[in-house]
Amino acid sequence: MSLSELRVFGRSGTPVSPLTLGTMNFGEGNGSPNGGAHGAPTGADESIRIIQAALDAGITAVDTADVYSQGESEQVVGRALRGRRDDVFLATKFHGQMSANPAHSGNSRRWITQAVEGSLRRLQTDRIDLYQAHRPDYNTDVLETITTLNDLIRQGKILYYGTSVFTPAQLVEAQWLATTNHLIPPLGNQVPYSMLVRGNERDVLPIAQQYGLGVLAYGPLAGGWLSGSFVLESGKAPTRVHSLPGRYDISGPSSERKQHAADALARLADKLELSLVDLAIGFALTHPAISSVIIGPRSEEHLQAYLQAADVRLSESVLDAIDDVVPPGTNFVERDAGTIVPSIEFAELRRR
Q1: Which residue in 113, 122, 280, 296 has the most C-beta neighbors within 10 A?
Q2: What pLDDT, on the 0 to 100 scale, is given for residue 254?
Q3: What are phi and psi of 94, to 5 degrees?
Q4: pTM given for the model
Q5: What are the two backbone dihedrals, phi and then psi, of residue 8, each rounded to the nearest 5 degrees?
């Protein structure tokens, strides 16, 4: 697979590059107002250089979100795409809290209609190609959300809409509600997917194929576990262990098994004379449900490593070896799914 071998995004007929440039690292913010960790390590000028280098190399899709550095990532993307906007499949997201006011968040009609105007302004564009619900909103009826997004398509403000880390039931519900209410159904879904995070192979990815959804896979390096710097002998944890300790806690037995799996995959890559990044990106690109894999470089050096990995093709025997280390459908840690549903996270919802 090379960047010139474009893929069709779901049932849309829209071609996209196999790699999508993710921009969570771009901007100069210090995090979200509700305690999130969306501050950006890469300043605006370098971010623009990375975006333009990615486009020059053949990447045609860019993914951002309003909450990344509280809008600064979108601003950087808007600046970088001047004169090139029509050549890019531009995706952004809503849902995250955008001010100290908790009403400035969620998937309600009231917030979406405000959020889209902010994203259009920051991105300096008249339309968003793919507008995504960043997370499920358990306080808002799904029909309200998809009716609002349907209206935005009719208004020409967005071309398609999708979801991120929705459960299998939510994906099917959204398709059913749209069909039965004569609305345009969701086109895409964004999910975590890597050699260490394979839970979506059980149901989400088959559902995406069933309904013709385009899938953007994020976290191919599993939040740093597959960056090449994390093996048992090094004693080094992924960088996000320190910024997101709840998600990357390495003290429990599940994470210990994950450590051993990461180490085994690093040894496999070394045996194949590949970098671990090469192996990770090559794996994520292999699944037939994946339209494009989101990469999140923090520097131009990181970008070049990702671009090189796009040319890696893994044989059946290599894929079998990966399956032996991490069986298909495996998630080591519940939170690796991207979110924890309330019925699992809150004990009071499953006890009388």
Answers
A1: 280
A2: 81
A3: -125, 170
A4: 0.91
A5: -85, 130
